[in-house]
Specification:
Largest sheet: 7 strands, mixed
Number of domains: 3
Radius of gyration: 30 Å
Distance between the termini: 57 Å
Helix content: 55-70%
Shape: globular
Strand order of the largest sheet: 5-4-1-6-11-8-12
Number of helices: 20
CATH class of the largest domain: Alpha Beta
Mean pLDDT: 85
C-alpha cells in the first residue's frame, strides 16, 4: 500500500479574483463536485494507507470542513515556497512508497492504476503524455528521454518527447533526492529539481499515458476546458475493461450518454428499473421472434443489450451499486439469453436429426461463457486475451440482430453454438496454464547495441537525392506506359467465363505497380528525412515528436489511401465483378475518411489554442471591438 501526498499550496494568481477566498482545488467541475472531490475519489480507488493534503494556513479550515477526518491536512509554515516543499513536509510521515498528486489536476483513474502497478526499482516514476495540446506543451513540465529513462525535466526545454502529467510515484531513494534538493535550493525548490537530481543518477523512469484524458487547471480558460473534459472522463470510466467489442464501440457510446444525461439532470432512477426493462425487452423480443417478426425482434434484442449497460452505469454514477442489483442483473441476463435462443428456435421450421441439438448447445453456451469468465476472474486470472474471441453477451445479441435483419436466424444459432465453444476451450486452456509458475526470468536489456554509431551529416543529402531520383524514375516509367497505350489498349488478353481482361486493364495495373513500387521508395526516405528534422519542427511549433509523427503517419495513410482509391476499382472490377469491387471501394473510402478524421482531430487538439485565438480575433474585427 502507498501513501498519497496532494500538493495544494499554490497561490493560483492566474485564477484571481476567483482564488482569493477559496483554493483552486475547491472549484467545482459540476454542481457539488469539486476538483478535489474528483481527485480524492480516484485516489481512494487505490486503497491508500494514508492521504495527506498540504495547503496554506488560511485554507486549512475550508478543507477540513470539506474532507472531514478521512484526509490528514498539513499546513505550510512559510508564505513563499515551491511545490517540492509541500512534499518535504510529509517525508517523516509517509512510507517508502508514496504518490505525489497535484491538487489542480483532473485525470482518468486508469492513469493512477497504470502508475502504481508499474514495476520499477527507480526512485521516481512519472506519467508521460507524448501528445499534449500545444498550450499544454508550452505550460507543462517537459521531459527529455533516453531509452526507458528520463534525462531531464524542465519547463524551458523544447517539448520533443512529451510532458509530465502531475502524477509521480516515489520510492525509497526519492526521499534522499527530495531532501538534497531542499538543502540545495531551500524552500523554493521545485519537484523538477528532485527529479533532475535523480535523473543524473539514472533513477527516473516513466509510464506512457498518451491518449488518457487529463487537464492541469491554471487559468479560467483551463477550468472551462476541464469542466468539459470531466464529463468525457466520466463517460470513459463507465466503460469496463472486460467489455466486448460491440459493447465498447456500439452499446457504450449510446448507453453512457443516456446515463450521463440522467446524472447531469439529477434524474435518479433505480438501476434495477433498467435491469427489469432490459429483461422485459429481451422477453418481448423472444416472443416477437417466435412469431417470425424477425426485424422487430432483432431490434428489440439490440435495444435490450444497450439498456443492459445503463443499469450499472447509473448505479456507479449515483453511488447505488449493490450486491443485490449485481445478482439480479446477472440472473436476468442468463434467463433472457435462453429466452432469445428459444425465440430464434421457434422462428425456424421444424428441426430434424442432429439439428435439434443446435438450440440446446447455443443455450448452454450462452450461460457457460458468463460462468467461465466469472470463475476465472474470481481465481485471479487475467481474461483479457479471451475477450479477443467474439463470444461475449454483447456480441451474441448483436449477431442475433444482424441475422434477423437479413432473415438468417439459423446463422445466429450456429454462431452462438460454435464461437462461444471456442471461448470455453480457451478458458480451459487458460485455467490449465495458471497453476504453473515461471521456471526462470530472462532479462532483456532495452538499449541500442554498443558502440552507438552516429549518423553522418550527409544522410539528409543522401535521402534527398534518393527522393529526387525515384521521383524521376517513376515519372519516366509512367511515361513509357503512356507511350505503349495506343498499341495495346484495344487488345483482349483474356476472355473466359464472364471475365474479360483487356489492354486497358493491363495498362492500369502497370501504373498501379509503378506507383506502389516507386512510391514506397519515395515515402520511406521522406519519412526518414522528417525524422531527422523532427527536433527542429517540434521546437518551432511547440509540439512533441510523437504528435508530429502521428500527423505525418496520417498524411502517409491519406497518400496510400488516395492511390488505392484511384486504381483499385479499375483493377478489381474485371476480376471480382461490380459488387465485390464496390465493397472494396467502400472499404478504401472508409479508410480515407478515418485517416482524415484522425488527422483533423490531432491538428485541432494540438493547435486548439491558436484556433481559438484566430476565431476570437476574427470575431473582434467583425464586431469592431478593440
Amino acid at each position: 500500500m502507498v501513501s498519497v501526498v496532494i500538493c495544494a499550496g499554490g497561490v493560483a494568481s492566474r485564477m484571481e479574483p476567483y482564488s482569493r477566498e477559496i483554493p483552486k482545488t475547491l472549484f467545482e467541475l459540476e454542481p457539488g463536485v469539486t476538483i478535489l472531490d474528483h481527485l480524492i475519489e480516484r485516489v481512494r480507488g487505490l486503497n491508500p494507507e494514508r492521504i495527506f493534503i498540504v495547503t496554506r494556513p488560511k485554507f486549512k479550515d475550508l478543507l477540513r470542513k470539506k474532507l472531514g477526518d478521512d484526509v490528514e491536512i498539513l499546513e505550510t509554515d512559510r508564505e513563499d515556497f515551491g511545490n517540492l516543499y509541500t512534499v518535504y513536509l510529509t517525508l517523516d510521515m509517509v512510507g517508502d512508497s508514496f504518490l505525489i498528486v497535484m491538487s489542480d489536476h483532473v485525470f482518468e483513474a486508469s492513469m493512477l492504476r497504470q502508475l502504481v502497478s508499474h514495476e520499477s526499482d527507480k526512485a521516481f516514476t512519472v506519467c508521460l503524455d507524448r501528445k499534449p495540446s500545444r498550450s499544454e506543451a508550452i505550460e507543462g513540465l517537459k521531459l527529455a528521454l533516453s531509452e526507458e529513462r528520463v534525462e531531464l525535466a524542465d519547463k524551458a526545454i523544447p517539448p520533443h518527447y512529451g510532458i509530465d502529467t502531475g502524477l509521480i510515484m516515489c520510492r525509497r531513494r526519492a526521499k534522499d533526492y527530495i531532501r538534497e534538493a531542499i538543502m540545495g535550493k531551500g524552500s523554493q525548490a521545485r519537484i523538477a529539481d528532485a527529479l533532475n537530481l535523480a535523473a543524473s543518477f539514472n533513477d527516473v523512469d516513466y509510464v506512457d499515458v498518451t491518449g488518457k484524458l487529463w487537464k492541469d487547471v491554471d487559468t479560467p480558460e483551463d477550468l472551462q476546458r476541464a469542466r468539459k473534459l470531466y464529463w468525457e472522463i466520466l463517460r470513459r470510466e463507465l466503460v469496463k475493461p472486460e467489455d466486448g467489442i460491440v459493447a465498447r464501440y456500439l452499446n457504450r457510446p449510446i448507453s453512457t450518454r443516456i446515463s450521463l444525461m440522467l446524472y447531469s439532470r439529477r434524474i435518479l432512477v433505480s438501476p434495477n428499473i433498467f435491469s427489469l426493462l432490459s429483461f422485459a425487452l429481451c422477453l418481448i423480443s423472444a416472443l416477437v421472434l417466435a412469431e417470425r417478426n424477425l426485424l422487430l425482434g432483432g431490434i428489440l434484442a439490440q435495444a435490450a443489450s444497450v439498456l443492459d449497460g445503463v443499469d450499472g452505469e447509473v448505479a456507479r454514477l449515483f453511488k447505488r451499486v449493490s450486491k443485490l442489483g449485481s445478482f439480479l442483473d446477472s440472473l436476468m441476463d442468463r434467463v433472457a439469453d435462453v429466452a432469445l435462443i428459444a425465440g430464434l428456435t421457434l422462428s425456424l421450421r421444424a428441426l430434424e436429426g442432429a439439428g435439434v441439438l443446435l438450440p440446446m448447445v447455443a443455450s448452454a453456451n450462452s450461460v457457460l461463457v458468463s460462468y467461465a469468465t466469472s470463475g476465472l476472474t474470481r481465481a485471479g486470472m487475467d481474461v483479457s486475451a479471451l475477450r479477443l474471441i467474439p463470444a461475449t453477451r454483447d456480441v451474441r445479441i448483436f449477431v442475433i440482430f444482424l441475422a434477423c435483419a437479413f432473415s438468417q436466424q439459423d446463422l445466429a444459432l450456429w454462431y452462438i453454438a460454435i464461437v462461444p465453444a471456442i471461448y470455453l476451450m480457451g478458458s480451459v486452456y487458460l485455467a490449465f496454464r495458471h497453476p504453473g509458475e515461471p521456471k526462470g526470468t530472462v532479462r532483456l536489456e532495452k538499449r541500442k547495441p554498443a558502440p552507438e554509431v552516429s549518423l553522418e551529416r550527409g544522410e539528409a543529402s543522401f535521402l534527398i537525392r534518393g527522393i529526387l531520383s525515384n521521383s524521376f524514375k517513376m515519372g519516366v516509367a509512367l511515361l513509357l506506359v503512356r507511350i505503349l497505350s495506343p498499341m495495346i489498349s484495344d487488345v483482349t488478353i483474356l476472355s473466359q467465363e464472364g471475365i474479360s481482361i483487356g489492354g486497358e486493364f493491363l495498362l492500369t495495373f502497370l501504373d498501379f505497380i509503378i506507383v506502389i513500387y516507386f512510391g514506397y521508395r519515395i515515402l520511406i526516405p521522406t519519412k526518414r528525412l522528417f525524422d531527422l528534422a523532427s527536433d527542429r519542427f517540434a521546437e518551432r511549433f511547440s509540439v512533441t515528436k510523437t504528435t508530429l509523427g502521428r500527423i505525418v503517419t496520417d498524411l502517409l495513410y491519406l497518400v496510400v489511401g488516395s492511390i488505392l482509391w484511384i486504381y483499385l476499382p479499375s483493377i478489381l472490377r474485371p476480376v471480382l465483378g461490380d459488387w465485390a469491387s464496390k465493397l472494396i471501394y467502400l472499404g478504401v473510402a472508409i479508410f480515407l475518411l478515418l485517416s482524415a478524421y484522425d488527422l483533423l482531430k490531432t491538428l485541432y487538439r494540438t493547435f486548439e489554442d491558436l484556433y481559438s485565438k484566430l476565431v476570437d480575433g476574427l470575431a473582434r474585427k467583425i464586431s469592431g471591438d478593440a
